[in-house]
Amino acid sequence: MLFYGPSGAGKKTRIAGTLRELFGAGTEKLKIDQRVFMTPSRRKLDLNIVQSNYHIEITPSDVGIYDRVVIQEILKEIAQTQQVDLGAKQRFKVVVINEADSLTRDAQAALRRTMEKYMANMRIILCSTSTSKLIAPIKSRCLLVRVGAPTDDEMTSVLQYVAKKERFTLSDEVASNIARDADGNTRKAVLMLEAMKMQHPNLSETTMSIQPAKPDWETYCHHVADMIVQEQTPKRVMDVRGKLYELLSHCIPPHVVLKVRDFSIAVRIPVLVIIGAMPETIAERVTDKVDESIKADIVHWAAFYVCPLLFISPASVTGANRMSD
User: Fold this and answer.
1) pLDDT at position 311
2) Which of 69, 159, 249, 250 has the fewest C-beta atoms under 10 angstroms from its C-beta?
């Protein structure tokens, strides 16, 4: 099976429900192990694995270009072992692969071969945000399940349910504000509710003055966007570059940074150099504050530069930042 959809739409929740339906409540008894894998060049790779007696959950993309090694070893090991629980409803084990769309082509080819060879003892569930990066042979061998982002009304219902379970009252106005700012991400909405509850113990007030809490990194991105709009000088370019290094060195993904809606840049050619290093969060904020004639350029260059940014590691960013200092 292949579950795909935007972040926070509920893919992993549906996967957990599927596993529970197949094997029962035993799938909720999880443990985390750290496995060490050896590459052909004798390099050691550490990877955290979440597993129960009935399934195993891995994120091979965490090891970068060596994901093929993880795919081959884990799947071969699982496929060659029998189900140890004689009372299990199913005789096979399930392997859940997160971020399947981030797998390299070699890893996807290895996955395709394994899917064909070991289906007697193993089933595979893939989880991804998109199917565009997956090779056709994998998609053709999977049942595709699209998980769409929830509506604001659906997220409001979820927030009210959480508030009821935690035994506090949440006003409809506050719930609607959180749902709107969460942008279809239920996980983000619940985290925002938790942060607001810590800041404002009484959320039952029907007042619009209580604004949803935003993550620190998002506020930081908005500040960077405002800096770009306010001034376009060589000094400001260096200041903005330093702040972008700071975001990347704290493991905020580049594509997330450039995606923030409030990113507004009001300059044309000089700012395009800066935008190239900015996450989408920043780019969107900038477009809210600039003239219509340059919005297309901003979006174009943000998309153009976000691809190479995906290959930048936090360590390399930290080193570059020190050199610039």
Assistant:
1) 58
2) 250
